[in-house]
Amino acid sequence: MKPLGPTDPRRVGQYRLLGKLGAGGMGSVYLARSDRGRTVAVKLVQPELAAQPEFRQRFQHEVDAARRVGGDWTAPVLDADTEAQTPWVATGYVAGPSLHDVITNSYGPLPERTLFILANGLVKALGDIHGAGLVHRDLKPSNVMITIDGPRVIDFGIARALESGEGLTRTGAAVGSPGFMSPEQCRGETLTVASDIFCLGSVLTFAATGRTPFGDANAPMTALMLAIVQGQYSLDGVPESLHPLIESCLAQDPAQRPSLDQLHQFTDIPDDGREPWLPGALVAQLGRHAVGLLDSEEPVQATEIGQPTLGPPATAPPSGYGYPPVQSPPPGGYGYPHPATGPYT
Description:
CATH topology: Transferase(Phosphotransferase), domain 1
Keywords: ATP-binding, Kinase, Nucleotide-binding, Serine/threonine-protein kinase, Transferase
Protein name: Serine/threonine protein kinase
Region (Disordered): 304-345
Helix content: 25-40%
GO molecular function: ATP binding; protein serine/threonine kinase activity
Domain Protein kinase: 15-278
């Protein structure tokens, strides 16, 4: 998290901004606290997008849809003001680093057991998102947050608001991220929930190796997208027990990809809950992150953007995310069936 700069607001609606978490094609994201003391993430829309009536309409639609997403595996939409001069949306803040930061900056590729539990949590998150009638459209490591109780998926559905032709042209923003897009996404076709399944395979490969199945995530966009549409992937470095699962997700034909029910079945490994799902070094890192969050100071000065707009009453965060207990792998390993012979076909 970066300190607030001279051009950053100090207050948005009822939320006091504490620091800047990042920025993307749609706008900037800030860590903030409500007047009641709840920590949230506030996303402010870019001014050039805010000036477009079509974008505002789509943004309102996507925020309304995102409010319907429930469950323990996503960051809930708590509040929004799509009519403000600078539209914004507030979501529950997930106190943990992103999967991208964990793999590239603080730990490295995750061990096999952690990968299975990660996959199971992401499948459950996609179930909540798809159950609300949404397609995520931008499932990538930076949109997966790592907590002591499991992963959380953020930014679901909101990316669709960028799909208006004018907004895309004026901002140069792409809906999706190179290396974590489906073939149909690269070709600009209509997306279904199967697109998120494809991206799940890429995210799991990154978590296991530090790269996408189609090459380094920092490779040129055209090279990555060409490899995706041609199905040229590599699972070198991925545990063998995960190969059938990821291969099925990366099927070129959306109709050949597994359903969420199938994915849940094959990632629901036994667990007695006695051991953390993360390696010890990551558990310690999360503890330090939580201490830093508690020590965050609210800025003294305040510049208002819009008026307080209260959404549904903020609900308390879940006491636990309900991961199935994880024991030692069975004698023959986790034993995922190969797509060619298992229930994926």
